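testing teh design pipeline on a random one, pls ignore if ur not involved
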């Protein structure tokens, strides 16, 4: 019998249906992954994932297409990328939101940087969120 050891990874990728339920699951799975990585306070990254996933499911939705969440853990930050199939509908931050429209202002406030990159089909909205404790410091020798 072959035994396998779990290898820690600093990358997380998840594809979900472009629905409200998919956006909610993206947030829940992302929080679990952030905790598994030892991020002491995942709340900022959680909010960014929630907003970008909700935008992908709401504004980037194409019938029959999923959206993808990708996170990479670096020394002092987490890079979050959410890709959807609607390249022609880029995010539009509003200066004075009335009802709704606060999401990208929140992303801008929580992330050290964010932006949009084109894909062959669709777009990817990315954000870099500081995570407080460096990845190596989060692990204690056993």
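output:
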């Amino acid at each position: 019998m072959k035994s396998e050891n779990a290898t820690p990874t600093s990358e997380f990728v998840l594809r979900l249906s472009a629905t409200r339920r998919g956006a909610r699951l993206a947030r829940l799975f992302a929080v679990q992954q952030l905790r598994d990585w030892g991020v002491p306070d995942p709340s900022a990254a959680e909010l960014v994932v929630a907003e970008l996933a909700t935008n992908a499911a709401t504004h980037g939705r194409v019938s029959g297409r999923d959206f993808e969440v990708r996170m990479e853990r670096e020394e002092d930050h987490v890079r979050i990328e959410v890709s959807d199939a609607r390249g022609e509908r880029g995010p539009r931050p509003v200066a004075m939101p009335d009802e709704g429209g606060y999401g990208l202002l929140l992303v801008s406030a929580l992330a050290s940087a964010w932006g949009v990159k084109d894909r062959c089909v669709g777009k990817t909205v990315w954000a870099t969120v500081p995570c407080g404790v460096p990845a190596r410091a989060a692990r204690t020798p056993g």
